[in-house]
């Protein structure tokens, strides 16, 4: 049996594949035209995807989007209704789980409570025909890899949640699987432990070079860990791309709204690269839209630039042209979130919709931004994105 017996942020600078590389050159896993139905309900609809050797890929989406169903189909735990899955060129579409080459870790860890930590890790190895000496050496190596050599004789109940998760990972990779599957492995842990463990998991994955698929509903987790993110919704793939592509260039309104925070405004396309929001014209890319098209305009709070209360005057002295999309706004509310201030603004040019902006602590201090004050803010032209209204 090749699969392991464990079946049952602020984005960081963890090294990963280039953000410019969005398609694998050497697929480890190929999924083609995959569907999964339960009676009249279609959980997965026409899924096609390639995953490259050594990649770390996150399936990301809200509850019920199909991400865990897709992972279970890959694992052979819940066979697809139709479609093809190939691993390293081998058709595994209808193979039972025991005949597939993967290790898997679920949220519950599923460690055997009556076995010590070293016995838990050794469990899958003992069925591979290795000698006791080889098994012991491999267990010792894995314990050192996950930094838990001193815990070898302890039982799972004596370990913290983070330590149990590391043991579950060690057990999953013990038989050197071709594929590592992680189903929300960090969701049962507190926030600080999650941040620490995602670094450890990513570092371990890079060290081993094992192709890894992780299911998560946590956007920050996916942005921090993945080489590529597969965003899913209602059983279909909305977008596949690097974290930078997904965040900065969302292809659909769902992706823009699900990944990070957004301000959304009803808009109408005007001539000359402009849209009408409220009663005012704003510059933005309008490629793909015709004049008069109703759209939804989106800008992220983090992309809004504060200029203080006299940006027009300052910029007219410093350079001939003032920033595009510069508007007057009143600071209605401020919420301190540690690394930045989340600020709610009201702006006559935007009509009756509030504008949420995230300002750095330094910007708030430098510009003396405070509740009740009036400032000017810039909505950068290239960061004001348009989507068909209602889609």
TrEMBL record:
Biological process according to GO: quaternary ammonium group transport
Superkingdom in the source lineage: Bacteria
Matches recorded under Gene3D superfamilies: 2.40.50.100, P-loop containing nucleotide triphosphate hydrolases (3.40.50.300)
Residues of the ABC transporter domain: 29-259
Keyword entries, A-Z: ATP-binding, Cell inner membrane, Cell membrane, Membrane, Nucleotide-binding, Translocase, Transport
Polar residues bias: start-end ranges: 9-26
PROSITE patterns, per the entry: ABC_TRANSPORTER_1 (PS00211), ABC_TRANSPORTER_2 (PS50893)
Molecular function terms from GO: ATP binding; ATP hydrolysis activity
Residue ranges of the TM segments: none
Region of interest (Disordered), residue spans: 1-26
Family: Belongs to the ABC transporter superfamily.
Protein name: 2-aminoethylphosphonate ABC transporter ATP-binding protein
């Amino acid at each position: 049996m090749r699969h392991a017996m464990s079946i049952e942020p602020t984005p960081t600078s963890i090294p990963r594949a280039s953000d410019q590389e969005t398609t694998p050159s050497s697929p480890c896993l190929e999924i083609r035209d995959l569907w999964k139905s339960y009676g009249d309900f279609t959980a997965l609809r026409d899924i096609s995807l390639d995953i490259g050797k050594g990649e770390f890929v996150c399936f990301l989406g809200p509850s019920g989007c199909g991400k865990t169903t897709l992972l279970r189909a890959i694992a052979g735990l819940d066979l697809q209704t139709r479609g093809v899955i190939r691993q390293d060129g081998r058709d595994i579409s209808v193979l039972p789980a025991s005949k597939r080459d993967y290790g898997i870790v679920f949220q519950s860890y599923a460690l055997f409570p009556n076995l010590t930590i070293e016995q838990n890790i050794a469990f899958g190895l003992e069925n591979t025909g290795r000698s006791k000496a080889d098994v012991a050496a491999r267990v010792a190596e894995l314990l050192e890899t996950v930094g838990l050599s001193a815990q070898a004789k302890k039982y799972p109940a004596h370990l913290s949640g983070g330590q149990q998760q590391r043991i579950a990972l060690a057990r999953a990779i013990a038989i050197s699987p071709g594929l590592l599957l992680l189903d929300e492995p960090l969701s049962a842990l507190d926030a600080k432990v999650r941040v620490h463990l995602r670094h450890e998991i990513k570092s371990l994955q890079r060290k081993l070079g094992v192709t890894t698929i992780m299911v998560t509903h946590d956007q920050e987790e996916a942005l921090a860990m993945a080489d590529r993110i597969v965003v899913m919704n209602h059983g279909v793939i909305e977008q596949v791309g690097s974290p930078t592509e997904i965040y900065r260039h969302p292809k659909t309104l769902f992706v823009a709204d699900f990944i990070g925070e957004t301000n959304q405004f009803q808009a109408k396309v005007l001539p000359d690269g402009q849209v009408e929001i409220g009663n005012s014209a704003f510059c933005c890319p309008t490629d793909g839209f015709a004049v008069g098209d109703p759209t939804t305009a989106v800008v992220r709070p983090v992309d809004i630039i504060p200029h203080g209360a006299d940006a027009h005057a300052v910029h007219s002295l410093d350079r001939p042209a003032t920033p595009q999309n510069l508007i007057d706004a009143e600071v209605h509310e401020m919420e301190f979130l540690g690394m930045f201030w989340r600020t709610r603004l009201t702006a006559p040019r935007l009509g009756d919709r509030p504008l949420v902006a995230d300002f750095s602590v330094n910007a708030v201090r430098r510009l003396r931004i405070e509740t009740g004050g009036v400032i000017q803010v810039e909505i950068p032209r290239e960061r004001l994105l348009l989507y068909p209204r209602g889609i």
